[in-house]
Structures are given as structure tokens and as C-alpha cells.
Amino acid sequence: IIRETGLQPFLKADKEIILRYQRKHAVEQALLMALENESLEVYYQPVVDMQTERVISMEALVRLRDEKLGFIPPDEFVSIAEKNGSVVMLDEQVFEKVCRFLREQILNNHGLGIKDVHVNISVIFFMQNDMSKKILDIMERYGIPAEYITLEVTERAAATAPEMMEKHMETLAAEGISFALDDYGTGNSNCSYLINYPFDKVKFDKTMVWSYFTSKTGKIILDNEVNTIHELHIPIIAEGVETKEQMERLKRLKVEYIQGYYYAKPMPQKEFLEFVREKNQLHERNEETE
Ligand code: C2E
Ligand code: MG
Ligand code: MG
Ligand code: MG
């Protein structure tokens, strides 16, 4: 009957839709359960200063592992969390875990050479009236000086909720918290936002970094962006750097900071600490013998 009525292609499409829906539903359940149990994990990826070649900063990246589904990438569950609103809880829980790590393992260890930690904040969290208060309360609870915190936002926040964004940025910046414009070069962020909002750093998205090495247009675009941003006296972090050659090219362009698999992937706390100790202290030893 199906073949006769020509319904088969539609049924096939339906099957895909159902599978996609089931996956989405399962991921959503896994996420809500992790939020309920406060079992989301936070990994840390080092950011290296090109002048000293030391780990100067780190980005906190959320990780969700489910018994049945295994490891679920944040690009998949963060957008679900933004749609159902649970991203507010997610960002809060991540931020609290970051502050605890910072207090117990970094600040109580004389900083290990680390100047700040970058934490991603969703536009949805920015749209909450009490967002800045929640951030400041958590920092106070763990005794975190504001200079150790950089919040990463995309221009989507400014485009979606300009008033809230301005209000929270003003409050938090007045306390000494820094801001980085994330996803720069993806169409999600551009230069006009650097002029209108007080961003302290810009993060080049990995897609823009990779285009630099694969296309002529990509090269022209990145060269131009570096010039413009440096004219505004804003330092750049290039993300997605995977090879020595890429690192050296960007260093020659005077990109200040590099983050990428070339140095390290995002790691659990313990491995991250080992990596930093090794990289930052190795250097101290070299300097002593020089
Ligand atoms: P993002 O903030 O732009 O983070 C950078 C992403 O690039 C991370 O992916 C990181 O693992 C990846 N990356 C860094 N260097 C390299 C490299 O050399 N090669 C490759 N292939 N990838 C590299 P991840 O951890 O999967 O996170 C994806 C996105 O999920 C983040 O993009 C961010 O938008 C979002 N996200 C992660 N954690 C949080 C969070 O706590 N809250 C919110 N709201 N969003 C988060
Ligand atoms: Mg980020
Ligand atoms: Mg980024
Ligand atoms: Mg991104």
C-alpha cells in the first residue's frame, strides 16, 4: 500500500525525525539528571602566553557523561539547555565548580602562574535580572578576587538582550571582572561589538583560525581582524591551534595568546594541574640555568 501511494519517502523522513527527536529527548533527560545530581564535570584547557610560553590562563568547559549515552558534546546539550532554560542552572553550577577549583587548587597554591580563568556564559543567563548578583555571590562565597574571572560571551547576547547585557556587564566590570568576546569570526561576533561594549579580550574561533591556513580569503580576513583589534588595543586569544607551524605563524602575527590541541586538549582538574606544574615550572628551571 505504501509503495502504491508513494508514501515511502515521507515515512523514511518521519523515521529520521523520530530518531532525532528520541536522541534529543534522551540528551535532555541526561542533562536534567546531571543538573539535579550536580554531576556535570568541568574540564580545563590551558591558554599559553606567546611572550613567556607559560600557561597564563585556562578555559572551563562543561562535560556531560551519561551511563547509557556516554559522552555528549556540549555543542549538542548546551543548545538544548538554552531552549528549555536549564542553561541558567548549568552556568551557575559550572561557575561554582570553577570557583571551588580556583580556591582550593590554584589560589591556595600561589596561583601556579595562572592569572585568570575563562568561563562561558550563555545569553539566556545574561537575560536573567539577578545574573550579576548570582555571579558575585558565588565569588564571595569562595573568596575569589575579581581579577581572576573572565566571562566569555558571544555577540548573540548583545544582539538578543542589549539592555540586560549592558546592565550586567557594567555591574560586573565595575567589580573588576573581565569580558572576552567569544566565537569571533563565525558571524556570531564582529568588531562593532568591541567598540560598543567594554571587552578586554577577543577569542578567535577555531574555524577562522583554520581558514587562515587553508584559504587565501581566510588569510586576508584574519590579517585584517588582527590589525583592527590591535588598533583597538585589545589582546587576542587564538583557539583551535593544533600544530607547531600554526602556533609560530600566529606568534609572528603578534597574537598574544594561544589555546589549542597543540598545547593540550581540555583536561580534568588533576591532569590540568600536572600539565601546568610541568609547563610553568620547567620554564623556571630553564631560566635559573640560563
Ligand atoms: P567555545 O567556548 O568556543 O570553546 C572552544 C571549543 O573549541 C571547545 O569545545 C574546545 O574543546 C575546542 N577546541 C579548543 N582547541 C581546539 C583544537 O585545537 N582543535 C579542536 N578541534 N577543538 C579545539 P567544547 O569543549 O566541545 O565546547 C563547545 C562549546 O560549548 C563552547 O565553545 C561553548 O560555546 C559551549 N560551552 C562549553 N562549556 C560551556 C559552559 O559551561 N556554559 C555554556 N553556556 N556554554 C559552554
Ligand atoms: Mg568559550
Ligand atoms: Mg571560543
Ligand atoms: Mg565556540
Automatic annotation (TrEMBL):
Keywords: Membrane, Transmembrane, Transmembrane helix. The keyword Ribonucleoprotein does not apply. One of its GO terms (molecular function) is cyclic-guanylate-specific phosphodiesterase activity. Residues 24-280 form the EAL domain. This is GGDEF domain-containing protein. It comes from Roseburia porci.
